[in-house]
Amino acid sequence: MTGNNFFLRKEAIVLQQSYKVAIHHGNDYGFVEYDQESKKVKVVLDNAAIRQVVETYLASEHVIRLAGEGLMDFKDVTVRPAESIDNLQAALTRMWEKIGVYVDWSHPVA
To answer: Please, are residues 78 and 62 in contact by the beta-carbon 8 Å criterion?
Structure first.
């Protein structure tokens, strides 16, 4: 890869406004999409009941225990998933435990 291609690729990644991650519940597969500019979260999942559960979860405020500076340093942080990509990702890490919907971080979403 030439240097110019690298920089073009890097710019394309930085300028990307949409973040997507795969989710599933049983045999129902879909994804969560976050638009960084508008701060809107969209859930795409055929099962309407589970989609509603995910939408409600991602629209709610959560207190999440996150790692701090040290190995045993944790702090409770209030996150509103639609506020930022970091908040959304923090909420997604707890989604399986809270509502039983799995986030498949390694599955690419087009």
So the answer is: yes
Q: Pull the structure tokens for residue 22.
A: 């795969």
Q: What is d(CA 80, CA 51) in angstroms, rounded to the nearest whole number? A: 18
The per-residue pLDDT for range 4-36, each reduced to its tens digit, is 444 444 444 444 678 999 999 999 999 999 999
Asked if residue 109 lies in contact with residue 22, where contact means CB atoms within 8 angstroms, the answer is yes
The 3-class SS string of 39-80 reads CEEEEEECCHHHHHHHHHHHHCCEEEEEECCCCCCEEEEEEC
- What does the buried/exposed string (b/e) look like for 11-34 if buried means 16 or more CB atoms within 10 Å of the residue's CB? eeeeeeeeeebbbbbeeebbbbeb
78 backbone φψ class: left, alpha, beta (φ>0; ψ -120 to 50): beta
